[in-house]
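Entry type: protein chain
Record version: 2
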Amino acid sequence: MLARKSVKQRFYPDKRVLRLMDSFRQMTNICVRIGLENGVYSMKRLCTLSYGQLEDFGLPSYYKPCAISKTAGILSARKKSLKRGYRSKDPYLKKSFLTLSYGFKIVEETLRFPVGRREFVRIPLSQHTVCILTDPKLTVRCFTLTPESLSISVNKDVEPIQGLNGVVGVDRNLKNLCVGNSAAVAYYDMSKVTEIADTTRQISRSFKRNDARIRARVVRKYGKRKKNRVAQILHSVSKAVVESAFRNREGIVFEEIREIRRLYRKGNWQGRSYRSRMNDWPFHEIRRQIEYKAAWVGIPVITLTKAETRGTSHVCPRCGERLQSSKHLSRKLWCQRCREMFDRDLVAVLNISRRGRLRFERSEGVGIEAMVQEPNAGIQMPKVILTVDPPTLTKQGQKPKS
């Protein structure tokens, strides 16, 4: 299994590198225009039509296929959006950047790449970047330059973990992340993410400057600050989840909530503050971080479909009865058959982990359906029911009751 990730560090380019980045942006825009005019989306056809028009920039030949490849990705994403019914404008790149996959080397803790004939630029790498790149199993694929950062993409072959001890479900909520199965459940507090988003929103609304350009600049500054603070919290949570799964040799299961944003649109009889809070919910980012970190250590991750996760928060994990909501406790659910109160997040994560375990067993060819085995003719065999009742629900740190 091929795992990929990127190493990012701060970088402030000089004038020569800025000119090179702007030239690369112009090359990409030319390829985009040619692709839109001819209705071309494949890299091979784009290379045939636009390769000759990129000669005027006088850059080394390494940059031409990289600009064409970047354009093919942009046009393919636009085609996919139009196919799904989303309106999409003609793409046009405004910010300078540079992506290079050929002709660069990492020598003596520096990144060297060509800018002209026998002319090279050397970028010193940070100690963190050098420490990661010293791994002999890694392969450097490409790098990307922006006016503020340098990102180096690396990959390595990872052997998936064989013989899993179980799976853990992940229930993403606005203020917490619930991870676990019938053996143990862990709650990760993420209320700080909501507080940071609410504070940033209040600060942005308090600006009364008449100049829209200055107001937008200040809002952009606070938005970037919010993004960095939230990313750090998500990084700590995702790292803890993956380390726990790797230590216990468990797979990770997510539920599909990709279209949940449609519930919080204008006109759905919801307040503005409530819609803003729900639309700032970083449910996709926490999943992305867990997925690439799990792939880096060989932990399998699957995502259940909507049909497979239907009713995960309303079905009793013990008996399968539909749970009743409590009038006084919003996060509690009551099972009339079991005569017990459950936490909503606990119910969801137990159902997700159980259904994810069934998916894993199907993929491995293990029989999972509950059935009664009838004895064969002439042979006295007892009836065997291939199901086991789940153990008592427990939280992290508690042993399940027998």
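Comment: Residues 2-157 form one domain.
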